[in-house]
Write a structure and sequence with these properties.
Shape: elongated
Low-confidence stretches: none
Helix content: 40-55%
Order of helices and strands: HHHHHEHEEEEHHHHH
Bound molecules: zinc ion
Largest sheet: 5 strands, antiparallel
Mean pLDDT: 94
Radius of gyration: 21 Å
Number of helices: 11
Distance between the termini: 59 Å
Strand order of the largest sheet: 1-5-4-3-2
Structural class: alpha+beta
Length: 223
């Protein structure tokens, strides 16, 4: 199996390539039967890719087969992945090989560039430990990583508002027992500081609180 074939199979297994282009690509490969095994190869070649259950099972079996030969979690993660802090330990498995290369620093406390010591994959990471308790990871190529090292960061995680919006695509915000928690107050302040015209309703939605609570949080910050 070539590196390109492996990368394509992984992209399908984790959901980064749609069914139709994958099926077309797979049927054009003539040397994958022995690396995949007869059963899995036959399933991939003959499956009904319009059936969501079938596709879900195929992706799972393929990930299991490919994962047995990987020394890290990188290939199994979506190009844009959300990893909960704590929970079932996925964060520990992922960060066992991913090391911090560069912090953005300054006001952008959440933003890092990291690299996997096992496979060399670079990841741009937003460590969001206030509202979602998740790491958001964007797979990036070597060229983007080099630009970051010259202090030229991609836009995707460049504001806290963008990071929280990405969080909403994956999950719902954590529920705070203390409605005036510091995490909420600081986040409200960061959002307003970065974009003074942001409305109370927008802040409320991003933080997962009521507009009334958002107003109180802003007042507590004196803004
Ligand atoms: Zn890796």
């Amino acid at each position: 199996m070539t590196a390109e074939q492996r990368s394509k199979l992984w992209a399908f297994a984790r959901g980064d390539i749609a069914e139709t282009p994958f099926e077309k690509w797979f049927l054009a490969q003539d040397d994958l039967e022995s690396p995949l095994g007869e059963d899995l190869h036959w399933s991939l070649a003959s499956a009904d890719y319009r059936d969501r259950d079938v596709v879900w099972k195929l992706r799972k079996s393929l990930a299991q087969h490919l994962g047995a030969h990987e020394g890290c979690e990188c290939a199994s993660l979506r190009d844009l992945a959300a990893i909960p802090m704590g929970g079932d330990g996925l964060d520990e498995r992922v960060f066992a090989t991913i090391e911090n290369v560069r912090d953005h620093g300054g006001d952008l406390w959440w933003l890092h560039l990291s690299r996997c010591s096992e496979c060399g994959q670079h990841w741009m990471i937003a460590q969001e430990e206030r509202i979602f308790d998740e790491y958001f990871l964007r797979r990036i190529n070597k060229e983007s990583a080099e630009r970051i090292l010259e202090d030229n960061w991609p836009d995707e995680f460049i504001t806290y508002e963008r990071v929280l919006n990405i969080g909403h695509n994956f999950d719902t915000p954590c529920v705070f027992l203390n409605a005036m928690s510091g995490s909420l107050a600081w986040s409200a302040e960061d959002l307003r500081k970065a974009r003074p015209e942001i409305t109370v309703d927008e802040i409320a939605r991003l933080l997962g609180v009521t507009p009334k609570n958002a107003t109180r949080l802003l007042r507590a910050n004196g803004s």
